[in-house]
Amino acid sequence: EPEVTQTPSHQVTQMGQEVILRCVPISNHLYFYWYRQILGQKVEFLVSFYNNEISEKSEIFDDQFSVERPDGSNFTLKIRSTKLEDSAMYFCASSYNRGVNEKLFFGSGTQLSVL
Amino acid sequence: KQEVTQIPAALSVPEGENLVLNCSFTDSAIYNLQWFRQDPGKGLTSLLLIQSSQREQTSGRLNASLDKSSGRSTLYIAASQPGDSATYLCAVKGTNAGKSTFGDGTTLTVKP
């Protein structure tokens, strides 16, 4: 069965450093998402992306965050200057269609630790 | 603002029992509701998707229901097995642009 692939599985960085989290969505999917889960908290929406544009973003997704689909297969999340509170599991998700039957497929996540 | 609540937060049952997990949401204007399973340190595996116009969906031993007017969904697991032990999350899709709002999850332990 097709899967959403995320790399790396773990990322450790120093506060203030830039990180790029990478995702390869399912090949025929058109809609892409980033969510995150801080330890012990709910899974939170960050951003949705379609046709090379952000469709919707949360208040968490400030100027320190950016997303990009640099080629036909990858989808990346960049955090420009990491903070301690950015430590979380980051999940990429994709779907084939929008609307009432949109089914999200999630990757295994990247555990980001900011020291 | 959509709020999603799951009750109970944790549940421990002996193998073979039937059980019900609950999910409630505050805004009934939803597109769909999706149930996921999350194993420790892992990603989210989709279990069932219920469209806003549907009342229930079934997959194997799992049955999910949706009562949009009352803002409730249940996930019924029949004949539970130790392999069902995981955290179960419900997610409500509230806009066409794609945002889903998650509950806190119910952590299920099935004892052999």
Descriptive keywords:
heterodimer, A: 115 residues, mainly beta, B: 112 residues, six-stranded mixed sheet, five-stranded antiparallel sheet, 11 strands
- Biggest sheet architecture of chain A: 7 strands, mixed
Provide the β-strand percentage band of chain A.
over 45%
Number of strands of chain B: 11
Helix fraction of chain B, binned, reads: under 10%
Q: What integer value in Å does the Rg of chain A equal?
A: 13 Å
Q: In angstroms, what is the radius of gyration of chain B?
A: 13 Å
Oligomer: heterodimer
Q: What is the largest interface, and how many residues per chain?
A: A-B, 30 and 28 residues
Order of helices and strands of chain A: EEEEEEEEEEE
Q: What's the helical proportion of residues of chain A?
A: under 10%
Taken as a percent bin, the fraction of beta residues of chain B is over 45%
Shape of chain A, please? globular
Pick out the low-confidence regions of chain A: none
- Low-confidence region ranges of chain B: none
Number of helices of chain B: 0
Main sheet attributes: strand count, strand direction, barrel closure of chain B: 6 strands, mixed
Mean pLDDT of chain A: 94
